[in-house]
């Protein structure tokens, strides 16, 4: 429960920042997508059963912030989570290489899946054109983010009140 | 005795005469550039002691002020720092207010020209997905905002209202892939559809473009032409400025012409908008 609460705070914090101050960071078309990278981070660090609910919750929160039809992002996030779970269990790579490669690969999949769904929902092939020119830079950016964000997120969700408030070096007898 | 008195009287008369001569001389040349010789003498004589006394006085004052009487200097310094920070903050605030004021003036002038009523709103957030170009404004259903109302910004059209919540609403920008506006080339009257996505400059930061499509091959359009709304879509009022045409070209099918449109309103930076009712 504590972990889920921390994840909800994390998702809300980043979505608020991404919709305001960090909206054009690094550019208008390549966006900071911390929630998506965090879902992939859960795929890296959690067991299948314990990671599914956080991925679902983050998807719902992201859907609430997005103009896309409700549920689209939840579906995409859960799909990306499964991809990472499968990839990390099937193919072994060194940790930082794995973080970059699997985050970038999952991003490419998610961008195209999103584009296909939006094109279908809105009957507008422009979304496929948008995906075509942004999927590589966005995937590279997400991959680079993954190298840094995944270990940080792992540390973040392991936080507890004791860790935050207990004085360092204090030994209780 | 008498001769002694007489000598004193003569000396007094001489001194008085000299004194009067001096006064008359100074009165006779009131605009003389340099001081008169007698004043020069006095000033020359008085200068060294004045300097010495002044130096001594200043030294004592300096020692008192800078070394002895420093009781509140630190507190005063802190206070001044706070006041300076506050003044800087107010300056920045004033700059913001000035910018906002200019924007609102432009918006009001534009709505007056179009003879349309509306309500002003602030942009509070942007969309988190790169695929969509959507803004959130701080006015919603309770402020009379309804779906498909037209939104203009300082200089031209911004988009139309999408989803409406109680206290806020989303604005579908003219650069969104789902946006389509019936427009005219102001100079020639050539008609076209303005769609959201431009294929050329999307990756440029802080640069939102739209695209003119379905321009007939024979349409008279050139780079720099002003594009305005036609009003034929029965959604956007006629005559609202949209932007300028760029990169006019024939499409690959060789049937239509197409062009990028640089909107008059910087859609990535817009902060104040006007919703037409």
Describe, in plain words, how this protein is organized in 3D.
The complex is a heterodimer of chains A (173) and B (277). Chain A is mainly alpha-helical and 173 residues long. Chain A has one domain (2-23, 30-159). Chain A is built from 7 helices and no strands. In chain A, helix 2 (34-45) crosses helix 6 (126-157), helix 3 (48-65) packs antiparallel against helix 4 and helix 4 runs antiparallel to helix 5. Chain B has 2 domains: 30-70; 117-277, Rod shape-determining protein MreC, domain 1 (Thrombin, subunit H, Beta Barrel), CATH 2.40.10.340. A 6-stranded antiparallel β-barrel of chain B has the order 1-2-5-4-3-12. Chain B starts with a helix and ends with a strand. The chains are: A mainly alpha (173), B alpha+beta (277). Chain A binds chain B through residues 15, 18-20, 23-24, 26-31, 33, 62, 65-68, 114-115, 118, 122, 124, 126-127, 129-131, 133-134, 137-138, and chain B through 124-132, 134, 136, 162-163, 170, 177-178, 195-197, 199, 202-208, 268.
């Amino acid at each position: 429960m504590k972990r889920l609460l921390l994840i909800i705070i994390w998702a809300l914090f980043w979505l608020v920042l991404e919709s305001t101050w960090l909206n054009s960071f690094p550019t208008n078309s390549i966006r900071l997508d911390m929630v998506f990278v965090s879902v992939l981070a859960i795929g890296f660090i959690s067991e299948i059963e314990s990671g599914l609910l956080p991925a679902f919750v983050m998807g719902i929160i992201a859907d609430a912030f997005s103009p896309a039809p409700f549920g689209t992002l939840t579906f995409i996030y859960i799909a990306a989570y499964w991809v990472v779970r499968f990839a990390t269990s099937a193919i072994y790579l060194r940790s930082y290489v794995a973080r970059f490669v699997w985050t970038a690969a999952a991003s490419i999949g998610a961008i195209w899946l999103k584009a296909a769904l939006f094109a279908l929902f809105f009957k507008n092939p422009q979304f496929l054109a948008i995906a075509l020119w942004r999927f590589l830079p966005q995937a590279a950016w997400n991959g680079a983010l993954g190298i840094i964000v995944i270990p940080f997120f792992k540390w973040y969700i392991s936080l507890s009140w004791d860790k935050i408030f207990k004085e360092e070096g204090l030994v209780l007898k | 005795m008498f001769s002694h008195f007489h000598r004193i009287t003569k000396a007094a008369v001489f001194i008085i005469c000299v004194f009067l001569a001096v006064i008359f001389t100074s009165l006779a040349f009131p605009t003389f550039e340099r001081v008169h010789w007698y004043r020069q003498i006095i000033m020359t004589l008085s200068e060294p002691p004045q300097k010495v006394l002044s130096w001594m006085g200043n030294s004592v004052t300096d020692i008192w002020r800078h070394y002895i009487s420093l009781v509140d200097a630190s507190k005063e310094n802190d206070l001044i720092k706070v006041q300076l920070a506050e003044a800087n903050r107010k300056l920045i605030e004033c700059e913001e207010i000035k910018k906002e004021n200019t924007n609102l003036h432009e918006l009001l002038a534009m709505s007056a020209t179009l003879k349309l009523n509306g309500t002003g709103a602030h942009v509070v957030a942007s969309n988190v997905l790169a695929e969509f170009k959507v803004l959130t404004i701080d006015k919603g259903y309770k402020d009379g905002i309804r779906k498909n109302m037209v939104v203009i910004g300082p200089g031209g059209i911004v988009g139309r209202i999408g989803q409406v919540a109680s206290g806020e609403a989303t604005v579908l920008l003219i650069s969104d892939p789902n946006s389509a506006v019936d427009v005219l080339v102001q100079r020639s009257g050539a008609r076209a559809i303005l769609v959201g996505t431009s294929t050329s400059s999307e990756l440029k930061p802080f640069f939102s473009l739209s695209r003119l499509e379905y321009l007939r091959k024979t349409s008279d359009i050139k780079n720099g032409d002003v594009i305005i709304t036609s009003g034929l879509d029965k959604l956007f009022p006629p005559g609202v400025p949209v932007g300028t045409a760029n990169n006019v070209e024939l499409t690959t099918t060789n049937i239509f012409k197409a062009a990028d449109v640089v909107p008059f309103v910087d859609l990535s930076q817009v902060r104040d908008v006007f919703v037409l009712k």
